[in-house]
Protein: Noncanonical pyrimidine nucleotidase, YjjG family
Amino acid sequence: MKYKHIFFDLDHTLWDFETNAYQVLEELYHTHTLASRGVPSFEVFHRTYMMHNEKLWDRFRKGFINRNDLRFKRFSLTLLDFKIGDDKLSHAMGTQFLEILPYKTTLFPNAKDVLEYLAAKNYPMHMITNGFEETQLIKMKSSGIDHFFTHVITSEVAGSLKPYREIFDYAIKMAGATADSSIMIGDALEIDILGAHNAGIDQVYFNSLVPVTGALKPTYVIRDLHELRDIL
Ligand SMILES: [Mg+2]
Structure:
């Protein structure tokens, strides 16, 4: 067998971030009675939030803003688009979003089945994630997948972010693995796939929404997690 160590990304790869975040935002929308403050519908609120969140994550990854800016501004900018200038509310929503989100439990179809399959084949499995340390550990516990993973390498612990090579090198070292006997499974071309490629690690790209484009060719492309059985 070529591969001895398996590295997974968490958000959007195993843990269905979109579905889980959608549920939390809907709860917050109702808890804070945003309809009564002029937000026309939850769908519009959600769309606006997603747009700001995406832009701010990009700035965060590039090092232009810090974690606290990200947590607060994605709500303050969203609320401002509806003429709600309320820093207290923005802070409250930013905090509550992160408090509630990790307890949501939706995984992608076949995630648990395929982890059980890989565990039964005795593959050591690890997580490499850009998410926040405390949040990622709760997500894994809440969704019942924490016991599958030997090492959980977050950007906070590694002092580096995917796609930078340092976090992959750190993960390989932690796991006692080698790059050429490892494989990385992730949903983000520019983050998981490019990063693993640059660290000499084979990659599985799992993202049915974004097709492969550009020069980067992942080692494998799958549309459903159960296809990992054909590779591993
Ligand atoms: Mg991801």
In short: The chain has two domains: 5-16+107-231, 17-103.
